[in-house]
Every structure is written in C-alpha cells, then in structure tokens.
Amino acid sequence: MATTHTALLVLVLACASAARGFHFPGVAPVDFRKKDLLAVKVGQLSSTKTQLPYSYYSLPFCRPHTVTNSANNLGEILRGERVENSLYEFKMLEPKLCQIVCKIVLSEEEANELKEKIEDEYRVNMILDGLPMVVPIMGFYRQTFYQQGVHLGAMGQYAGSNYVTYFILNHYKFLVKYNKDAHTDIARIVAFEVTPHSVKHKYDGEWKGNATKLKTCDPQSRRLVLSSDDPQEIEANKEIIFTYDVNFEESGIKWASRWDAYNLVTNEHWFSVVNSLMMVLFLSGTIAVIMLRTLYRDISRYNQLGNQEETQEETGWKLLHGDVFRPPANTDLLCVHVGMGVQFFGMVLVTLLFAILGLLSSSNRGGLVTTMLLLWVFMGLFAGYSTARLHKMFGGSEWKKITIKTAMIFPGVIFVIFIVLNALLWGEKSSGAVPFTTMFTLALLWFVVSVPLVFVGSYLGFNKPTIEYPVRTNKIPRPIPGQPLYMNPFISILIGGILPFGAVLMEFFFILASIWLHQFYYNFGFLFLVFVVLILTCASVTILLCYFQLCSEDYHWWWRSYLTSGSSALYIFLYATFYFFTKLQITKAVSTVVYFGYMLIVSYAFFMLTGTMGFYACLWFTRLIYSSVKID
C-alpha cells in the first residue's frame, strides 16, 4: 500500500508540473535592448461584484488620438477582452519618475460614472509583453500572492465627517522585472507589477502638457509621490492629473517560467488534490475488487448449473438474458445525448493533452477558449459516428433524422441561451457583449463546419456493421418484481452522482475562482489527473449500481446508467448556487442571470459528459457478463 501511495504521489507531481516546465510553442519570446520602446496596453475594466466588463476608454481616462483594439482571436472576443493601446509608454532599462500622462476635467456625468464604478469595485487591467499587470500581496508565511489589476479608486471618510468621499488612483508606480542574458545586452520581461497611489497633483503657472513641473512630484529634485500626500478626490469640474513612475529590476526568473509565480499552487491545494485522489482511487479500487470477486463467483455458479430446472430456480442477473438488451424508451434522445457526450469528451481530452504538453500558452490570451471551441466543432465527427452506431444497434434506420437532432438540439439550446445573455450584456453596454460579426462567425462554424462533420461521422457510423448483442431478446417482456427501497430509481440515481462530484469538487472550486473572481488558474496537470479520476469514478459507480439493478431483476438500465453518473451535474449546479451566495457579492439582476445562465450551460455539458462515461461503462459491463455465461 505504501508503494502504491508513493507511486501515486510521484504521478501527481509529474503531471502537475508538466504544464509548468515547457516553453510555449508558437509564442516566441520578445527580446529587448536598452532604450527599446515598451508600450503598455490596457485591457477591460473588470469587477467581481457585477461580472460586467467594460472598455477601458468607457471612462474618462487619458486616451491616444487613435485607439486600436488588438484582440485578435475568437476566444478574446468571446471573453469580452478589449486589449487597446494607451499613452503609458517608456523605454527599456530607463527608469522614470513622475511622468505626466495627461490632465482631464470631469463633467458631472463622468464624475458620477467614476463613483458608480468605484462602488462596484472595478479594477483597471493593463498588459506589457503579454503579461498582466499585478499587485503583489504578502500572505501568510511570507508567501507572495498576485492580484490581477488595480482598483479604479477607493471610498472613504475624513475624520469627523459622515460624508463619503470618492478617490481615484491616478499615479502608478510600475516595476518591470527582466531576465538578462549574461553574454549579450538582450533582456526579456518576466514580471509587470504596480503600486497604485491617489495624489492630488499641484503645479505653478500654466499647464504645459507633459512639460509641466509638478510640485507633488518632480523627477529633477527626485521628489517622489508619498502615501502622506493629499489624495485626489473625484469632483465635477475639477482636474485630475494622471502620472506614473517606472523602475526596472533584474530577476533570476527565466522567460519560460515567468507565469509560474502567478500560478502559485498552495500547500492546501496540493493536500486537497492528493487527498481526493487517494480517497476516490481507494473507493474505485474497492468497488472493482468486490465486483470482480462477485462476478467470478456468479459466473462460475451459473456455468456449473447442470439442467434447465436448476436454472429456473436461480435468481439474479442471469434470468434477464432475454430482456437485458431490450431497447429503452426514447432511444433517439438517448443516442443524441450519448453522441453529444462523446463530442464533449473528445474536446476536453484533447484540450487537456494540449495544455499539459505546453501547446496552450498563458501569454496567448483567449487561446484556451478558441482551442476548446474549434475542438468542439471538429469533434462533431465523433458525435455523429457514435450516435449512428447506437441508433443502428437499437434497430433504427432513419440515420439522417437522428443526425439532424444530434447536430441541432444541444447547440440550438446553447445558442438561444447565449443570445439572451448577450442581449442583456448589450443592454448594460458591457464590452462583454459579443458583436454581431462574431455571432455570425459562430453560426458559420456551426452550420458550415460542425453540421457537415456530424453528417460525415453519422454516415460512417451507420455503414459500420451493427453492434451485436451476446444474447437474444425475447419477444414478450419479462415482468419486473418489486424493488427494494435502495434500488428506487430516484434514490440510486442521486446516490450515483455523489462520488463523481466529489472527484472534481476541489478543481471546480479553483475554476470558479478563476472565472468569477479573476484569479489565475493554469494547473492543467492537476486538471488532467482529476479528469482521469472522474472517468474511473463514473465507470466504477455506474457499473456497481447497474450490477445491483440487474440482480434485482430490473433490466431498464439504459437510461439509468446515463442518469446515474450524469446526476453529478445536479450537484455541480447546486454547488455553483452555493458558491454564488457565499463567495460572490453580485447584487445586480443582470449579473445574476448571466451567472446562472452560464452555470446552467456548464452543468448541462457536464451532465452529458459524465452520463456518457457511465453509459459506455455499463454497456461494456453488460456485454461482458452476458457473453461469459452459458445460455441454454
């Protein structure tokens, strides 16, 4: 047992580090020399309180004469990313103090909009050389964590006053960390940190643009912005001056490892993942041992029966040989859901393999979403193939009809939900709303690529030989005796979803934090291990409950096997609801609808994924045991 645990721990360590030790193909490092221009780009304004992103220039910030959006892939657009140029520019390895960006005067409407965004805890996001701007925070045990972006401003009260005052963070102290080649003057950026300040800048005489000499900070006298300086209040018809400092620090971090500091894995995460793996693998192993021993005994006993009279006296799963492969009700719907599950399985598996091999880069913003979307489209080939083979196995002949259902039902439901959510985002004027051109692109991917691939797969599958059952099906259905309480379909299905849900709970928590709390998550090694454990758990639990069902002489296992493991999606949605009320501070109705809309899509996809795993495991199991006994 100790050896097994040691081997498992080594496997965890190897897989968890796999995604962290690779150079990312297709994302070439940028080499900088002294005095090379560094252009900071601005991303979206984000808030964990509203979950409604906005363009940086939707607020009265300093803006260049021409604003260009450099979001260049489908994933960035779907995520609401708006990566645009800015006036924050400086030169490599040339520290600067108190550089003026611009001066603005707020109108009444602009001041109120800034105050509203500060109340909603919006954060400013910037990007340099593909790295997000982060604020370093010292945690417990002197461990540094990084928070993405900086708060737009703050709210507070002066001593002795009950009036709430709003302040804007208008001075940034940038720290650019770089790794320098020992033999050349080439440097690569490995970190982009910031310390924000609110300072009410003052100056004498007329405003001369960037040449204005400020009294609150002066590069010539090296007068720095201090925390004790008067903060900049947000008031209508009052001017605000935006400034920044920039400093450079050499670091021992290599370019290929520059994301590792952001993707910090805590000891608690390690412990939770290893503990979950141990528990689930132990339970799955126990189930497998029990099943193998029990089945071996059953098959040996059945094969030793000498005559028909003894066979009739036996009870248990062998008596169902004439009914166990009787087609279920709503076979078309079952075939469609299994086919869609195969499509999701292929998408998730290939995406995770790409990730742990280092083919998905953290620097390639939106690359993960783009990859998953394209893989889902191309996996339509396997969806059509598996649907057609099952349809033919059940005696169906209308392969074109079942193919249309496979290609249209789930994508159609998702597209309708997506359009409704997108309309709500448009109503809020959020940058997260997907443009019409992108919606048109998605529709083209669906109808021009995915649907034909589903038809190709279905054609290939339907022309394959029919999957043969190991036993014949009787013409007259066998009556099903009364079932014990624990074999009640509703109860057994709900019980069956607990273990698969437990297998993914910890990683699901971190994924939710990444999506809704804007935290970093690139632990694809962990995620791949959890996915493997999920497969084993769904298969083990479904086979066990299927065996108990057959022993109770109930042969309606087709849908039950799908729903048993698929019921874990119910727990996923319930946990997402729990997470909403305990971890998030969303108050807006639109944000609430968006959250639950997306979580409904995720839960439905998880239902089809896990349901398909359980279905195929049970199909393999029943074919195996009924082909292992002698049927007179």
From TrEMBL:
Predominant location category: membrane
Domain of life, source organism: Eukaryota
Keywords: Endosome, Membrane, Signal, Transmembrane, Transmembrane helix
Annotated membrane topology: Multi-pass membrane protein
Pfam family, one: EMP70
InterPro entries: EMP70 (IPR004240)
Official protein name in the record: Transmembrane 9 superfamily member
Organism: Eragrostis curvula (weeping love grass)
Lineage: Eukaryota, Viridiplantae, Streptophyta, Embryophyta, Tracheophyta
